[in-house]
Write a structure and sequence with these properties.
Helix content is 79%, strand content 0%. The chain has helices at residues 2-5, 8-25, 31-54. The protein has one domain (2-54). Helix 2 runs antiparallel to helix 3.
Length: 58
């Protein structure tokens, strides 16, 4: 379980990138998609740093 927790941040960053790709392709047409992608990516980077420090020993 701890090994999976180390990758939660990366998964959030990839989810944000997927939202940006869908926005580029025209699936989403509002600025809310851009804001959601940005917030998701920032939270993913923060989560990646914090969780890697916490679960580094495993």
């Amino acid at each position: 379980m701890n090994k999976i927790m180390r990758y939660v941040g990366i998964m959030l960053v990839l989810l944000g990138a997927l939202i940006l790709i869908l926005y580029y392709l025209g699936v989403f047409g509002s600025n809310a998609a851009l804001a959601t992608a940005g917030v998701t990516m920032i939270l993913g980077v923060i989560a990646h740093v914090i969780l890697n420090k916490r679960f580094m020993d495993d």
